[in-house]
């Protein structure tokens, strides 16, 4: 199917700020295709973000969009969903936005199970502010603030989301553009808090310091390190070292969704 990307893009906001070779454009196009396939109208769709290179995305898309403060997008999105539960809410954030400054908001939104989808653009670094390490920087990786290599262990954001109570959790990469689009549609269709982590290359802040010298190297790295759940089941702990599992990792359709719970308890019917 041919997609009319331009229909969804605010041309007045171009050119975008993303560096040549940044993985984020691939995610944006996958999102557009997924939203088009869902049949969501521009008026019923809200896209919110915090601050960072990833968080610039809502500005480029012609929906109801919010560019909020660093790490606080989920609080804004929660307010919007409670005020109008009919809206379809997608929240965008970087690994830093969602798991460092916004980590507390993230775990509590997971726990609450409010109906929205969060897409985490995980480039393993603070891209916008010149490549400081984040909670997802792999041990040993070089960053501007880890010149000897990252000394702290990193979060697995999908495991964090599942442990905190999210009811849909999946992962994809910018190499896997079509599976990513499929993952978005599954996440958008889920009633409850859905998390999609997308591994994305930041050639400017991460790749150059870590022997992934071109954007193509970064994509091939993703191809070589992504495995499916099925393959993972056949691998030993040593073989799994450094790999990450893609696809839908967790889905629970029984847990009460927060807005429904709120309406039942208060007798108030949100419109
Ligand atoms: C309260 C506050 N603290 C710090 C900053 C500076 N800042 C802007 S973006 C950013 C990190 C962005 O990293 P990430 O969320 O991973 O997004 P990326 O740029 O990698 O897409 C930081 C620390 C800020 N804007 N506001
Ligand atoms: S700094 Fe990295 S994440 Fe930010 S636009 Fe450039 S390549 Fe993309
Ligand atoms: Mg980042």
Describe, in plain words, how this protein is organized in 3D.
There is one protein chain. This protein is of the alpha/beta class and 271 residues long. Helix content is 36%, strand content 17%. The chain has helices at residues 24-38, 57-60, 73-83, 95-101, 103-112, 157-164, 177-189, 215-225, 229-233, 237-240, 258-266, and strands at 45-49, 64-67, 88-94, 116-122, 168-173, 193-199, 226-228, 244-251. An eight-stranded mixed sheet has the order 2-1-3-4-6-5-8-7, sandwiched between helices. Helix 2 links the parallel strand 1 and strand 2. Helix 4 crosses helix 5 (103-112). The longest helix has 15 residues, at 24-38. The mean pLDDT is 97.
Short description:
The protein is an alpha/beta fold. The protein has eleven helices and eight strands.
Comma- or semicolon-separated keywords:
binds thiamine diphosphate; globular; alpha/beta; 8 strands; binds magnesium ion; binds iron/sulfur cluster; 11 helices
Q: How would you summarize the topology of this molecule?
A:
Elements: H1 24-38, E1 45-49, H2 57-60, E2 64-67, H3 73-83, E3 88-94, H4 95-101, H5 103-112, E4 116-122, H6 157-164, E5 168-173, H7 177-189, E6 193-199, H8 215-225, E7 226-228, H9 229-233, H10 237-240, E8 244-251, H11 258-266
Parallel strand pairs: 1-2, 1-3, 3-4, 4-6, 5-6, 7-8
Antiparallel strand pairs: 5-8
Helix pairs in contact: 1-7, 4-5, 5-6
The structure holds thiamine diphosphate, iron/sulfur cluster (SF4) and magnesium ion.
């Amino acid at each position: 199917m041919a997609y009319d990307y331009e229909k969804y893009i605010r041309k007045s906001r171009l050119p975008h700020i993303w560096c040549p070779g940044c993985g984020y454009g691939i995610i944006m196009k996958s999102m557009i295709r997924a939203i088009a396939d869902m049949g969501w109208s521009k008026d019923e769709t809200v896209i919110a973000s915090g601050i960072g290179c990833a968080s610039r995305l809502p500005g480029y898309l012609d929906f109801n969009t919010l560019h909020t403060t660093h790490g606080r997008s989920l609080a804004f999105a929660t307010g919007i969903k409670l005020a109008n539960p009919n809206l379809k809410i997608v929240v965008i954030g970087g690994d830093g936005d969602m798991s460092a400054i916004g980590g507390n908001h993230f775990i509590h939104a997971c726990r609450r199970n409010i109906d929205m989808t969060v897409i985490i653009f995980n480039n393993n670094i603070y891209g916008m502010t010149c490549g400081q390490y984040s909670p997802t920087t792999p041990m040993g990786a070089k960053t501007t603030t880890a010149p000897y290599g990252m000394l702290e262990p990193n979060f697995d954001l999908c495991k964090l989301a599942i442990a905190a109570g999210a009811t849909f959790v999946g992962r994809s990469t910018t190499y896997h553009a079509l599976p990513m689009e499929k993952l978005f549609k599954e996440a958008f269709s889920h009633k409850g808090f859905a998390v999609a982590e997308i591994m994305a290359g930041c050639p400017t802040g991460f790749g150059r310091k870590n022997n992934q010298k071109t954007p193509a190297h970064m994509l091939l790295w993703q191809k070589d390190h992504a495995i499916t759940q099925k393959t993972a089941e056949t691998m030993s702990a040593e073989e799994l070292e450094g790999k990450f599992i893609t696809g839908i990792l967790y889905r629970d359709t029984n847990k009460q969704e927060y807005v429904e719970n709120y309406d039942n308890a208060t007798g108030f019917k949100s419109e």
